[in-house]
Amino acid sequence: MNMTQLFEKKKPVFSLEIFPPKKNAGGIETIYQTLDGLKDIKPDFISVTYGAGGNIADKSTCDICAIIKAKYGILPIAHLTCVNNSKADIDVILESLKNVGVSNILALRGDINPDIAPKDDFAYASDLVSYIKARGDFNISGACYPETHPESEDAVSDILNLKKKVENGTEHLISQLFFNNEDFYAFREKAKLAGINVPIEAGIMPVTNKNQVLRMATMCGASIPKKMSRLLNRFENNPKALEDAGIAYAIDQIVDLIANDVDGIHLYTMNKPYIAQRISNAIQSMR
Fold first, then answer.
1. Contact 112/54 with Cβ under 8 angstroms?
2. pTM here?
3. How far apart are CA 243 and CA 220, in angstroms?
4. Whole-Å CA distances, 253 to 183, 185, 203, 206
5. What gap in Å lies between CA 248 and CA 190, rounded to an integer?
6. Which position among 17, 147, 171, 243 bears the catalytic label?
């Protein structure tokens, strides 16, 4: 099933994101523990990250997508970045995905790692989208930034670049994290006015660690509203309280998003199934 068919069939879509385990954390076998904890949520799809933070990924993304599809019967989406890949590299990855029956790809530029010289075959994610579209029957999703991409000149140019990505073949968008729903609603309206008519999922990250969320917010250009800032400062030295408060905040965001007719919710699980389970249980009747 491709994303267009999925969103025509169901709204809101509820999906999850996981990442390959670090090699020093037991290898790919440890992903079974994460997936076993997520399977009962019955997500509409699971996306698997690739080379987060600018690191060069190996073939584990493809392998995990194959496991998600074959063992768990869940639709997988493979992240694919181009900043550290040549066209020849991309060809190899696409062939690997074809071989395991994975046809849904989240096409990204990827994070620039200052310690790794980027390859120059692709300047932007829109270039990667065009390249993939010409090389097989793949369904392409993309990323969007409710508060504008950190490297963009301004909000207008950011929306125009996003429109180009959609015109090049992107069928579905997943937003970066945000903590103020009004920012997402304003972005959604601007996208609509620009003629961007593909489904836009809201990316939600439950806050469980102050330093982690501040780092992630800086990387993707997300602001920290006063309500979130108070939460972080009040509970930063009480991990369990911060976790509970962060989950409650995420649930509150999701309820409001669903009430405002969001196309879908994409939950960044950080490979913590029990957190995803708590959130899923809280909104079960809305799914």
1. yes
2. 0.94
3. 22
4. 12, 12, 10, 10
5. 29
6. 17
171 catalytically annotated: no
Is-contact 208 270, C-beta < 8 A? yes
Q: At 218, phi and psi to the nearest 5?
A: -65, -40
Distance separating alpha carbons of residues 182 and 167, to the nearest angstrom: 26
Helix (H, G, I), strand (E, B) or coil at 43: coil
pLDDT one-digit tens code per residue, 41-82: 999 999 999 854 434 445 689 999 999 999 999 999 999 998
Nearest to 28 by CA among 66, 72, 80: 66
As a whole number of angstroms, the distance between CA 127 and CA 80 comes to: 12
CA dihedral (99, 69, 137, 93) in degrees, to 10, reads -50
Query: Among 107, 121, 220, which residue's Cα sits nearest to residue 168?
Result: 107
